[in-house]
DNA sequence: TCGTTGTTGAAACAGTCGTACCATATACTC
DNA sequence: GAGTATATGGTACGACTGTTTCAACAACGA
């Protein structure tokens, strides 16, 4: 009895809110401008998500879900040399289309350093790449439980992403990755 | 004639404000709490710095100045193997005492990605390590103008710092750096 | 039609923000 | 003392924040 609930509205809003956050960042996020960009009202955002904090949590979960999907779509190729695979990962993650994700990634990390209490699973966001990467670089690992190789590979990727996003120097960062690939081969 | 100006007050305030920002981060910085912690008033902060934006700029400049001094005090030892030098840099930069600097570093970078217009010299903060590092790792460089080696070394350090600050896993990150040092030696 | 449940708008609340204005106090020269 | 420049307190403004409150409307079953 009574009017039927419309769960699709929340999903629609969540999707568009995630777009908005990816485009504008988390830092200055405010309900009123967000609502206006989404053709809704702060009233409805709170109605659907309870509070701003819960909305942000939902948006971050959605962003991570999207990232995982995109990654799964891309990673399959396990063929080729170590260099080719490494270059493939770098080319993908450093492409302009990934820039909003990368930006949000860095923003969340930085905010997590100041307010760790808001990000109870910050560590997982780092280490959950390891299963995937460990498999992709099994031939240069020291063993099946080797976490050091994925750690180093991801550190290089993240460090170069940091450099690239700050300096915009594509040529230099590309060459540094090539250099690392050569070192790894030996 | 008239009351003499007291430039020392501004300097004192700047020093304490920098301490405060290093302790509390840039994100939620607000004049009133800052002033209270510094035993002054928002009125005086604006009197000395003109605006919040200029205050922040002054604080960031001061923080960078301090970091450069600390680095200069530490780096001199150019002796030892590549591994020893690399481990020395890592041990120093990843020490707990450097945590506030590292945190602010990541925070500024993330904010710079969202508001590039506020950080006209973001790139320099990355590349001005190169002269120092290029000299320190000359023996593994391909030439005197090699920017690839410093780029890769700093990427590893920053990437592992990212990992360490997010996961707190000292053991794994230390071992990853050792692994990189071995690769670099060959 | 009525009761019930979900949805939505408008407005207000209590708070914080950076900043400006106005008066006053302080420390100096003459 | 007067004159003058710096230093400071107090206060208020206008714009914003997340959130709440109250009312109305919409869609359904009985």
Automatic annotation (TrEMBL), chains A, B:
Which domain of life does this protein belong to? Bacteria
Which PROSITE patterns would you find in this protein's record? HTH_TETR_2
Q: Where is the HTH tetR-type domain?
A: 7-67
Keywords, A to Z, come to: DNA-binding, Transcription, Transcription regulation
- Native organism is Kitasatospora cystarginea
Residue ranges forming the DNA-binding region read 30-49
Q: Taxonomic lineage per UniProt?
A: Bacteria, Bacillati, Actinomycetota, Actinomycetes, Kitasatosporales
What is the protein's name according to its record?
A: TetR/AcrR family transcriptional regulator
A Pfam family the protein falls into:
TetR_N
